[in-house]
Amino acid sequence: MRTALHSISYSGSWGQAKLTLEEIIQRAAKLGYNDIMLAGKRPHASLLDMTASARQRLRDTLSANGVGLACIAGYTNFTADAEHAEVPHREMQIHYVTDLCCLAADLGGKIVRVFTGYEHPLLPYSKAWDLTVAAIKECAKRASDVGAIIAVQNHHDLAGHSAGFQLFLQAVDEPACKAAFDAWSPALQGDDLIAAARAIAPWTVHTTIADYVRVPRFHYQPDLVNYRRDQDYIQAVPMGEGFIDYRGFLKALRDGGFTGTVAYEMCSPLRDGCSLETLDRYALRFLEYMRQ
User: Fold this and answer.
1) Of 32, 68, 66, residue with least CA distance to 280
2) CB contact set of 183 (below 8 Å; sequence gap of 6+)
3) What is the chain's Cα-based Rg?
4) Where are the domains of the chain?
5) How many Å apart are CA 61 and CA 212, to the nearest integer?
6) What sign results for the dihedral spanned by CA atoms 63, 65, 68, 73?
7) What are the pLDDT tens digits along the chain (292 aa)?
8) How far is CA 197 from each of CA 130, 163, 171, 271, rounded to the nearest angstrom?
9) In the beta sheet, which residues pair with residue 91?
10) CB 142 within 8 A of CB 101
11) Which fold would CATH assign to domain 2-210+246-291?
């Protein structure tokens, strides 16, 4: 399995240190990563900024540092803004994903990660499902035209559980539609993580990893002189210190035939702060964990 560093980790999105794409690629090489996973939006690989000259500079930076392109992370929500059906949001997103596929090819890669959609009160679940299946099916067909692959991540509400995720991939039924199956969602949902990984491994070409601990939350109720249990807060911690069984998950993926890239991301507030030193320490710990 090849290792990749997700550029979103150094994007400043959660108050953490912010680096340019060139700086992140150089840092990934220095830390010892094989590849980079590029966020397909600002402040990183936004299509608005990826001119021909910018693409050439990025190719040169990747080559000079010996870093490959694991994938480009697309940010989609195919059920968005159902209140305004006259706005062609799905068409815009299909166009966005298609252009990301072209960017990936230009940079020497082929995988574009996408999401499904969040549930929307104006869309019955079956309608949201059909719209999203149709959108990703079209994305996959257009990806195939430029030699790229769409990898669906189990992140948003729609098809978020592993059982629904398998059905979703079967419904799309396109050779260029694969899975970017992650452990985070099934672990939080109480799913059988190992069985899920084993079942979805044949589709999986990429996975993204981060580890977490559960922080119990309670609200005090004075009239009862007691506490009400609330949902846990999920706090990002260094690899191996959290509750997600990544050893079992990665073994199940590998046993199922997975040979793709494993990316590390810091995409939420970290337990130990947001300094550049902390980001680097977490990124290095991931590589140590993978070597073990």
Assistant:
1) 32
2) 193, 197, 207, 209, 244, 245, 246, 249
3) 19
4) 2-210+246-291
5) 32
6) negative
7) 899 999 999 999 999 999 999 999 999 999 999 999 999 999 999 999 999 999 999 999 999 999 999 999 999 999 999 999 999 999 999 999 999 999 999 999 999 999 999 999 999 999 999 999 999 999 999 999 999 999 999 999 999 999 999 999 999 999 999 999 999 999 999 999 999 999 999 999 999 999 999 999 999 999 999 999 999 999 999 999 999 999 999 999 999 999 999 999 999 999 999 999 999 999 999 999 999 9
8) 25, 11, 19, 27
9) none
10) yes
11) TIM Barrel (3.20.20)
Nearest Cα to 264, choosing from 139, 158, 242, 168? 242
pTM: 0.97
Residue 266 CA to residue 16 CA, distance in Å, equals 9
Question: Both tokens of residue 261?
Answer: 């890239």
Q: How far apart are CA 17 and CA 278, in angstroms?
A: 9
> Could you give the CA distance from residue 205 to residue 219 in angstroms, rounded to a whole number?
42
Q: How many CB atoms lie within 10 A of CB 233?
A: 11
